[in-house]
Amino acid sequence: MKxxxxxxxxxxxxxxxxxxxxxxxxKPAPPVMEQAPPPPPAPAVSSVMFAKGFDxxxxxxxxxxxxxxxxxxxxxVTTENVQPGAKLGVRCMYVPTNQLVRADSVALxxxxxxxxxxxxxxxxxxxxxxxxxETSLNGKTGMTGSFTVAQ
Length: 151
What we know:
Layout: H1 2-19, E1 44-54, E2 60-63, E3 66-67, E4 73-82, E5 87-94, E6 99-107, E7 112-120, E8 129-137, E9 140-149
Parallel strand pairs: 3-9
Antiparallel strand pairs: 1-2, 1-4, 4-7, 5-6, 5-8, 8-9
């Protein structure tokens, strides 16, 4: 019986030694790949609006796309995601003859959103018909719009 007890003790010790052996270290988590931040949105012309005037906040007063020959045509252009010095251009064409009425440009002053205004008027009045306005931002074509001059 003594030998059975010794054998049992020996087996218990063997199990304890094997069971308490060095445990495998957990593997470190794989490094997290940092994602590059998304590129900033591209500068763009976001809106073109025609009106007979504008207020101190550069909002259209009496917005319209139909003018009388002697009306002053106000064009309000909003740009987004721009840097100071970006060049905003407009070209107004008389559609029936594809004649350039006026071209103008301005260097934008603020980062982000800018509101700019342009004026088109003629002492003799505009000929009746359709007019097309094209915008450009840093030489790249932007939004277009159109208005009509009617008696």
